[in-house]
Amino acid sequence: MKFSSSAAVVALAATVSASPVAINKRQAPAVTDADILQFALTLEHLENVFYKQGLSSFPESDFTDAGFSTQYYDNLKYIAHDEESHVVALTAALSAAGASPVAACVYDFPFTDAKSFVTLASVLEGVGVSAYLGAAGLIASKEYLGVAGSILVTEALHQSIQRYNIGEIAPANPYGSALGLNEVYTLAATFIKSCPATNGALPVMAFPALTATQGIPAAPGITFTFSIDGDLPDGSFVTWVSGLSTESVPATMANGLITATIPMDVQGQSYALVTNTNVTSTLMDSQVLFGPAIVEVTPPSPTYDVTIQ
Question: What are the phi and psi torsion angles at 262 (to 5°)?
């Protein structure tokens, strides 16, 4: 994820105000470009620390013993370099604009060996792609949007590398899956133990957790189960976000588990949320009751029509 050039820093700094970041209500978030930059730095800190912890914890031999190639291990080092470059550039941009950049937090990453580290890396990169894609529509500055787009491209490259090396289809969906700021923060917050008191508050909040309770990868059309802490309100739905598709299906609860069918057009790293309504257009924060949960869905065999030119 490389964009450490001074030009990129200047472009970003020109779009960021030094106004403090405050918590806003879920239904009407007044998100500024400065907020988005701080949130991006929060995510980049997480990824930067994650890769450095993994590479510090496991030598190259652990990766090769787990079936990964030397070339893949070299790619991991490039990815770690990219994440560090983003932290440096975003920090410099915020400082140049007179803002106080957020610092890294204390994290708890649940990997125990090289294989679980790589599996988690794939998920984190997917969330990163969804975060930048979802934030794109909130960005006012065209310059900032261009830089964010360049980060998104590299995030997607990272995700493809990780997916391929754990045996998943790299291009599992023709389109990226966008998530809102609160949905992304809900996922990221599971790894954050504490943050410095000097960090400014971000205009985000975590939704109550939705936990996938059966093995993945899953498949379109099957029934999938989740758990929540509490009861499922009557009339709830499980809403699936996958690529350009947002589709709700009725949710039922029995024996402590929520059950819902995976729609046929859900594929790749997808997101499930419990909502209070049948979502027929853009998913709104006010509709979310629980989630998201990440569900990997194996795509069907590819088809193409040679007559389409």
Answer: -80, 120
